[in-house]
Design brief:
Elements: H1 7-18, H2 21-25, H3 36-43, E1 45-51, H4 64-75, E2 79-85, H5 91-100, E3 112-117, H6 120-125, E4 129-138, E5 140-145, E6 163-166, H7 170-177, E7 187-191, H8 194-202, E8 208-212, H9 213-220, E9 226-230, E10 241-248, H10 252-267, H11 270-276
Parallel strand pairs: 1-2, 1-3, 6-7, 6-8
Antiparallel strand pairs: 3-10, 4-10, 5-8, 5-9
């Protein structure tokens, strides 16, 4: 997840890509007492927060979360106002800035924030928000060139071979610390995310690449030269983690409407289509 960088750059990107949300967010004081869904319907647009630089979910105005945001707005018979933003230091900050209070740069909150971990400790730490509607299960994975690494029963099969991994991620931390650091010297950690690591594998610069399942699969799925499988590390989350969405805790009707929309999108096969366009297989969470 991208870190918050230079504030001036953040402001410029936001003004260029999401400045239209300001007008939509300008509500009269008397409207604040109305239920969230009623206010949104009167406004006529659903404001959806999406993370910047999170391929394949959002990059350059495109991606799974952008398409999902549009589908949710359509299901609620509303227009879409997309509110992209750079991640802060942690999820608690993001939930505060984008769901219940608003960002200190002067924008937000959104009506709903996408790509929120559906995690009980996170829920308990943030009583002002409601986290629900999981729509994807993420995992830490590793991809390998089958010609160079025909089998991988453990990380020992990668000894002496160059591996690409985004250093400031869970995959990076797991590999840097694996087996008391014995793979550390063969890791290339300069990549900002798993899609960049996968691109290095495609170019033949490395024989393996680690990252999140969505990142690796969006780049490599369907290519018979590569295998993608769970990172063989006992410290990796066994079942991965689900991502869903978040609204203010008191926005009960909105949460119910969005949950119903996600259920319908899944049942109708439309989530599978959205994910398929990014070369990912969608499965019910």
């Amino acid at each position: 997840m991208a870190r918050l960088d230079d504030l001036g750059a953040v402001r410029r990107r936001w003004l260029a890509g999401a400045g239209g949300a300001l007008a939509a967010l300008a509500l009269p004081a008397w409207a604040q007492d109305k239920p969230a869904l009623q206010r949104i319907r009167e406004r006529g647009a659903l404001i959806v927060g999406v993370y910047n630089e999170m391929p394949p979910f959002h990059a350059g105005g495109q991606g799974i979360d952008v398409a999902l945001a549009g589908a949710l707005a359509k299901a609620l018979a509303l227009k879409l106002t997309l509110l992209p933003f750079n991640a802060d230091e942690n999820m608690n900050d993001d939930l505060r800035n984008m769901v219940w209070r608003g960002h200190y740069l002067g924008f937000g909150p959104a009506d709903v924030l996408l790509h929120v971990p559906v995690d009980r400790p996170l829920m308990a730490a943030n009583p002002r928000v409601s986290i629900f509607a999981p729509y994807y299960r993420e995992r830490v994975m590793i991809a390998r060139d089958l010609a160079a690494v025909p089998k991988m029963e453990s990380l020992d099969d990668l000894l002496g071979k160059k591996i690409a991994v985004p250093g400031q991620t869970l995959a990076g931390w797991l590999l840097i610390g694996a087996e008391s650091g014995k793979l550390r010297e063969q890791l290339s950690t300069k990549f900002k995310d798993g899609t960049e690591a996968a691109a290095a594998l495609l170019r033949g610069e490395v024989v393996a690449a680690a990252g999140q399942a969505s990142e690796l699969e969006s780049m490599l799925s369907g290519d018979a030269r590569f295998a993608i499988e769970p990172l063989p590390s006992p410290r990796a989350p066994r079942d991965g983690w689900a991502v869903g969405m978040a609204v203010r805790q008191d926005a009960t009707e909105l949460a119910q409407a969005l949950q119903a929309a996600v259920n319908e999108l899944g049942a109708q096969g439309r989530l599978a289509v959205i994910f398929g366009r990014a070369n990912l297989a969608w499965r019910p969470v």
